[in-house]
Task: inverse folding
């Protein structure tokens, strides 16, 4: 009896576990790796190779290289031109900022000189006719305080407002119609708060050290708020000299307090207010006194310097 042949191991039947490739779930990636060339292009290349022709015509590669060089040259020239323009713009901006700062220093120096000369004029006026000065001192000082011609010191109310956190730096000064500008303090906000302080009994008001008079202007220019034609930096501090308790109660109960609360709740603007025992508000550099006379008998109103 012939020896028994050992039986071959049984092959498992085809099924999901026996015939599935490990990378069967990545058919798209597998096809891209195994057949990177499109089937149509591959068929055309095989046909050319069967006819004994090269895979592609020889003139296309040099032309493509020339096109790429031209495109690269154009892109390089454009980038260099843009960079030079940006550099010129940056230099011009830096020069303008430097000139503005230099002029600002000159203005500050002349402001200090003007105030010193005004103090000398006051001293000389007192020495001319002491009796006359004594009679008019109260009236003159009251008018000068109202006109901002003299620095004042006393208790008062301080209100501070600042842009909301995360607010952009750009703005055009328009009304609150743009979302990006809702959190920025605008000139209108300062105008409303200053008028509310005047209505609450303030005797003198200053914004960031700029004394306000009846002829002062609070304006919006570009990204800056101007007071007396001087740009201000945030935060904006409004100081008012007067009876602190009376001003605080009137301001909180009036439209100023409601407006300040609305800025904080509706636009996220940082606000704070409180009384101060003593503050000093500087005088204005130059003042022009005018007296208005009421019109009578059909006469026109005139201002007398």
Result:
């Amino acid at each position: 009896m012939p020896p028994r042949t050992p039986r071959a191991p049984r092959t498992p039947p085809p099924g999901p576990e026996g015939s599935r490739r490990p990378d069967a779930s990545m058919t798209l990636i597998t096809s891209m790796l195994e057949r990177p060339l499109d089937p149509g292009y591959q068929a055309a290349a095989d046909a050319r190779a069967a006819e004994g022709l090269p895979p592609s015509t020889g003139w296309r590669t040099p032309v493509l290289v020339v096109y790429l060089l031209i495109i690269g040259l154009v892109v390089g020239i454009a980038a260099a031109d843009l960079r030079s323009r940006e550099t010129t713009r940056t230099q011009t901006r830096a020069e303008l900022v430097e000139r503005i700062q230099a002029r600002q220093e000159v203005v500050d120096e002349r402001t200090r000189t003007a105030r010193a000369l005004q103090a000398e004029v006051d001293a000389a006026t007192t020495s001319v006719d002491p009796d006359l000065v004594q009679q008019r001192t109260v009236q003159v000082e009251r008018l000068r305080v109202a006109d901002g011609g003299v620095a004042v010191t006393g208790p008062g109310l301080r209100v501070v407002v600042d842009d909301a956190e995360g607010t952009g730096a750009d703005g055009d000064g328009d009304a609150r119609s743009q979302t990006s500008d809702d959190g920025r303090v605008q000139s209108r906000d300062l105008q409303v708060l200053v008028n509310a302080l005047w209505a609450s009994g303030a005797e003198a008001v200053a914004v960031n050290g700029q004394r306000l008079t009846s002829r002062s202007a609070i304006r919006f220019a570009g990204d800056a708020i101007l007071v007396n034609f001087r740009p201000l930096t945030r935060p904006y501090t409004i100081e008012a000299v007067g009876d602190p308790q009376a001003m605080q109660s009137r301001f909180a109960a009036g439209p100023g307090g409601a407006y300040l609360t609305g800025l904080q709740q509706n636009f996220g603007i940082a606000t704070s207010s409180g009384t101060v025992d003593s503050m000093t508000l500087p005088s204005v550099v130059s003042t022009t006194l005018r007296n208005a006379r009421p019109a009578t008998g059909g006469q026109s109103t005139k201002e007398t310097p």
In short: Helices lie at 16-19, 27-34, 39-50, 60-128, 130-147, 187-199, 244-253, 255-267. The chain is about 50% helix and 15% strand.
